[in-house]
Each structure stands twice: as structure tokens, then as C-alpha cells.
Amino acid sequence: MSVPIKISPSILSANFSKLGDEVIALEKAGADYIHIDVMDGHFVPNLTIGPEVIKKLRPLTKKVFDVHLMIKPVDNFIKDFSNAGADIITFHPEATPNVSHTINLIKKEGRKVGISLKPKSKIELIEKHLDQVDLILIMSVEPGFGGQKFMPEVLEKTKKIKEILDNKKLKVEIEIDGGINFENCIQAKKAGANVLVSGSTIFKENKGDLKKNIEILRTN
After folding, report:
1. Catalytic residue among 32, 40, 66, 177
2. CB atoms within 10 A of CB 123
3. Per-residue model confidence as pLDDT tens digits over 16-32
4. Is 21 a catalytic residue?
5. Is the pTM of this model over 0.85?
6. Residue-number span of the structural domain to which 157 is assigned
7. What is the model's pLDDT at position 187?
8. Of the residues 37, 40, 134, 209, which is catalytic?
């Protein structure tokens, strides 16, 4: 039985002057999740938004807030992002001295746990924690900026993670993020990803027809 494909549009590519309207439009267009990238200018070389912005967006939609924390030290901010309305909180193993402790902090908040691997990060960093998480986020670009080119070399890692999960009979979502477009989304799905994060393609292709772009990514 094939796993349903979910689309998580990245608001990093949205018009920040009307972010609330963009989130409402994504819900109407059929997004499954809303992907929110949080960067601190320290763990990655860019700054984005904090908990206050998420808190303001939260009443506008019932969609899952898929919050990717690219911040270090991550533990200090988990409660803030949970209180702001994050549904899934994803962190990087390199951003914490104790991965299990961070997982437990997120669970204590009643949120789903995501763990992310940068393109060069090894599976070994997360392998022993796979039965504790709900989602694995594979970065297919170096985290920090939107609009980068997809790195096909991460597909091998995606396949390997899918094999490990299947062998252990673990129901964990595999999300892929970075340069996802109408062509490479096909390879990403074949490799085992069932959640596709896309920013530029969703907001810019087909004259910004969000519904059409989400549907093409889902069905290609």
C-alpha cells in the first residue's frame, strides 16, 4: 500500500509583508503542513522568524505547523515554539549535546518530534533514535537560504533511511527539503520521501497558482 504524499509549503518563499494571507491561501490550496524555517544566524548563516510570528499565524489556520529549528543551543527554545503553536518540532543532532534529552523535551510539550540531517550529516547521528521520533527531515540543500539547487546525492541517504525504517517496522515520516521541483520530486518519492517541502516552486511556478503547484508536486 502506497503512503500518501503530503505537501509542506515553505513560507520562507512567501511574501513576508502579507504572511497571514499567504498561510490562509496555502490552506485553501490544499497544503497538508505549513513548513516554518527558524534560523538563528549562528547555527546557519541567516536569520528568519521567532516564536512571536508563529503565535500570530497560529489562529489563522488549523493546518499542521511543521517547524524546523536551525538554532543552537536548541533546548532553550523548545518551550517557546511549542507555546507559539508548533505541531512538529524538528531539530538537528548537531545543535544539542544530548539528542535523547532534546527529544524528551519536545515530547514533554506534547509535540511531534522531527530530527534533521544536513546533506553531509551521517545517518549514524540519528540511527539509534529512530524509534523515538515521528519525522526525519533530509536536507537536500545546505540549510540557510531558500532557492538553492537540489543535491541529488542525498537520495541515497533517503533510500537507506527508508530501508532501516522498513526493517525495524517503524512508522516514521520521511520529509525532504531543498530545491524540490516538479522533476526531482519524482526521484524524492521513489527514494522513500512522503513529505515534500517546497518554497520557490509552490510560490513562483504557474504564475503563483498555489493549488495547481501543490497538486503537481503531489501527483507527479
Report:
1. 177
2. 14
3. 999 999 999 999 999 99
4. no
5. yes
6. 6-219
7. 97
8. 37
